[in-house]
Amino acid sequence: MGKRNLYLKNTPVDEALSKYLKALDGLLVPEREVIPAAESLGRVTAQAVYARYCSPLYNAAAMDGIAVEAERTKGASEREPLLLRAGEDFTVVDTGDPIHAPHDAVIMAEDLLEQEDGSVQITEAAAAWQHVRPIGEDIVAGEMLLPGYHVIRPIDIGVLLAGGITQLEVWKKPSVAIFPTGTEIIEPGQDPKDGDIIESNSRMFEAMAREQGADPTRFSPIADDYERLRQAVSDAVDSFDLVIVNAGSSAGTEDYTVHVLRELGEVLIHGVAIKPGKPVILAIVRGKPVIGLPGYPVSAYINFENFVIPVLNRLSGRTGRTAPQAEAVLSRRLVSSLKYREYVRVKVGKVDDRLVASPLARGAGAAMSLVRADGFCVIPQSSEGVEAGEKVTVELYRTMDEIDHTVVAIGSHDLILDVMADLMPALYPGNYLSSTHVGSMGGLMALRRGEAHLAPTHLLDEETGVYNIPTLKRMFTEPMALIKGVDRIQGILVKKGNPLGIRGIADLPGVHYVNRQRGAGTRVLFDYLLKKEGISADAIRGYDREAATHMAVAAAIAGGDADAGMGIESAARAMGLDFIEVGPEEYDFAVPVRFLELLHVQRFLDVLKSREFAERVEALGGYSLRQTGTVLYL
User: Fold this and answer.
1) Helices and strands, counts by H and E, the chain
2) What is the pTM of this model?
3) What pLDDT, in 10s, does the model give residues 498-535?
C-alpha cells in the first residue's frame, strides 16, 4: 500500500501564484526567433516593428477621373464652365494611379462633361489635394507599426507587408509536455469497461496551450507507476519549457506526482484554497516549471487558467484575450449614411467610471486604424449617426482588464509616444498606453471633457513666452498638474542637401509648404514665428495643407510633395531630411491631479523616468531630458 500525501495545504490562490512566479524569476527566459511576416498570425512581437516604406508609396488617385493642377481650374462654375485639354491640362487616371507634379488634384469622372475632341468641361474648381491619397497617408516609413508584446492579428499582417516588413522577430512558442496519468484511464475511441475513465483533460490542455501560443505535445497515458512517471518527467524537463502532469496530485495512495517532483526538484505549493481544484502542485525541476493538475475536468480547467496560463504568458509575452462587448460614451459626433450599416473603429479608454470611445479614421484605405483600434461600434442602416455623449455598444478587441490598465493620452503627436507605448507593457506587464493625435488644443479640450487621463501638449503663450502652464491655468478650474516631458528641437524640415537654400522662416514665402493641423502646438508656434517676421499666412504656399503628425510632414517632403514644413528633429532624421533649427520647446503632459493616484498613470511616470526610455529617446536625437518626469502642481 502506498503512502498518503499528508502535505496538502490551503494556500490562497493569489499567494500561491505570486510565490511560484517569484521563484521562477530569472528562469522563465523566453527565446526569440525570426519568422516570415506572412506566417506570423497569433505570434507575439519581441520588439517594436517599424515601417520600411510609406503606404501609399506615392501620391495616388483616390477616384477614377482626371489629374489636374488645382490652380489652373480656378474660376470654373455652372455659368462659366472651364474647358480642359487632354495632355495639356489633365491626364486621365484610374483609382490607385500615381499623381505626378504639377498635378495635385483629381476630378471625378462623373463630374466631367466630355467633348468630341477629347477635351472636358468642368463646372467647379478643384481644391488642392482633393481625391488624392498623399504619400504616407496610411503608413509613414519609420513609424511604429506594432509595439513589442503585441499578438499579431490578420490586419497586422497586412499592415506589416504594406510597410515593407517581410520578416520580424517574435517570441518563440514555449514547448509544453502534457502527461495524463492513471491506471484507470483509457484513450478516446476505446470501449470502456467497469472502472475505466475516458481521458479527455490532456486534449483540453493541448487546445488551451495552443490557444495561448504554445507548442504542446501530449503523451500517451502513464499508469500509476512511480518509476515510469519519474523517468517520463525527468526526460521531459530536459526537452520542454513546461511540464504538466494531470491527475495523481491529490492525497490518494496511488497519487505519486508530488513524491516524484520532490525527488526530482522542489515542490513550492501543494494545495490551494480553491473549490473545485484544491490539489494543485507547483514545482521547479532543474530550472523548469512542472505543474500537477487535479484529475476532475472542472478542477483541471480552473487551475490551468489560474496557474498554467500565467506561466505560459511569461514564456511567450502573451496575455489572455476575450472579445467582450461594453457600453461606452462616444467622444464626438458620428454622421452616417442612411444607405449603409457602418463599422466605426474606436479607441476605448476608461476615464473615471465610464468608458469613452473615440472614433478613428473611417476611410476604406486606413488599415492602420484597425491596428490602432480597441474595438468597433456599429451604426445601423437607416440611422443618420450618433451624437457626442450618447452611449454606444462597442465590440472590444482588447479585454476589459487591459482597458482598465491603459493610460489614455489624447493630444499632440511625438515619436516618444511610440517609445512609451512599447515600453509600458515591457517594463510593467499588463499596463498600456493608448494615444490619439489631435493636436495640443484638441487634447486639452478632450481632457476637459473627461475623455482622457492626460494630454501631450506644447502650447506657447505669446504674452509670457512660457509653454503650457498659462494655457492650463486659463482652461481648467479643477486642480491640474504638468508632467514634464522632453525639451525637443523644432525646426524647418527640408530635402536632403537643402536645394532651395532655406535658412529660416523668412525664406518660406514662395516655396511649397506643408502645415500641421489647426490646434497643433507646432502650428501655433509657426503662426507665432510668422507674426514675428511680419509674414502673412497668405504668402505661404500650402499653408492650408494639413498633416496630422510630424512624420506625415516629413514623408510629404521626402516624397517631393513639399519643399518644407515645421517639425521635430527626430522626424527629420527618421526620413533622411535636413533640419534647420528654429529653437527648443517643451513637450509635456497635462493631467488632472486626481488621475496621478491611478496605478497605470504612476507606471506611465515610472517609464518616463526609466533608463530604458532615456536610452531610446537619446538614440532618436533632437531631445533633452532636462526635467523629464518632474511633476508640477499648478
Assistant:
1) 17, 37
2) 0.70
3) 999 999 999 999 999 999 988 788 898 899 899 989 99
